[in-house]
Amino acid sequence: MRILLVDDHEIVRVGLRALLERHPDFVVVDEAGTAREALEKALLHHPDVVVMDIRLPGGDGITACREIKQQLPRTNVIMLTSYAEDEMLFEAINAGAAGYVLKQIGGDELVRAIERIGRGEALLDPLVTQQVLRRLREASWQERASAFADLTEQELRVLSLVAEGKTNREIAKQLFLGEGTVRNYVSNILSKLNLTNRAEAAAYAVKHNLKELLDEM
């Protein structure tokens, strides 16, 4: 496996080279210290894997990753960073990075990570994976919430019961409201969501996962 090392600290590159070249199937073809050098040397050597620091002088690892993937789509890039930052993580993934690991990773773990990346697998550091899942959960929650942004909490409760097929009388009893009050709530809900009847309201609530939203509130 032909590997290009990209880091602006020479001592880091020396340590990485010493570590990786102990592996019988790894060959470090070159090193680069800037984003520009990373692209130039990637185009020169066509490595299988680029191990790239996310922060580089003369650009950044994310931009370099994007350019390398555009010109060498079969080259896999693994971002090696000291920072588990949400924005950089998602930018790196969007740029085509196949892996994102923290520099705190152990030597053997890094070797296994590169082996996996070389086989075409995707890889995230366990800590980073937790952040990805949290970010995805937040995005999912925000998407659900935006579908009901104009409704009050009480209107959300009423709509949830409408979606369960309950009548105004049943809803009134469950929420300790007057039946006329529930009727007004339903009317307001239909108006705010631009719907015409209870069946449409129920379908809308199911489609946009209202139950999950209320469970998380």
> What's the CATH first level of the largest domain?
Alpha Beta
- Rounded to the nearest angstrom, the distance between the terminal CA atoms is 49 Å
- What CATH calls the topology of the largest domain is Rossmann fold
- Overall pLDDT: 85
Q: What order do the SSEs take from the amino end to the carboxyl end, as H and E?
A: EHEHEEEHEHEHEHHHHHH
What does this 3D model show about the protein?
The protein has 217 residues and is an alpha/beta fold. The chain has two domains: 2-135, Response regulator (Rossmann fold); 148-216, Winged helix-like DNA-binding domain superfamily/Winged helix DNA-binding domain (Arc Repressor Mutant, subunit A, Orthogonal Bundle). Helices cover 58% and strands 15% of the residues. It has eleven helices and eight strands. The strands form two sheets. The chain has a six-stranded parallel sheet, sandwiched between helices. Strands 4-5 form a two-stranded antiparallel ribbon. Strand 1 (2-6), helix 1 and strand 2 form a beta-alpha-beta unit. Helix 3 packs parallel to helix 4 and helix 7 packs across helix 9. The mean pLDDT is 85.
What order do the helices and strands come in, and which of them pair?
Blueprint: E1 2-6, H1 10-20, E2 27-32, H2 35-45, E3 49-53, E4 55-56, E5 59-60, H3 61-71, E6 76-81, H4 86-94, E7 99-102, H5 107-118, E8 123-124, H6 126-147, H7 153-163, H8 168-175, H9 179-192, H10 198-207, H11 210-216
Parallel strand pairs: 1-2, 1-3, 3-6, 6-7, 7-8
Antiparallel strand pairs: 4-5
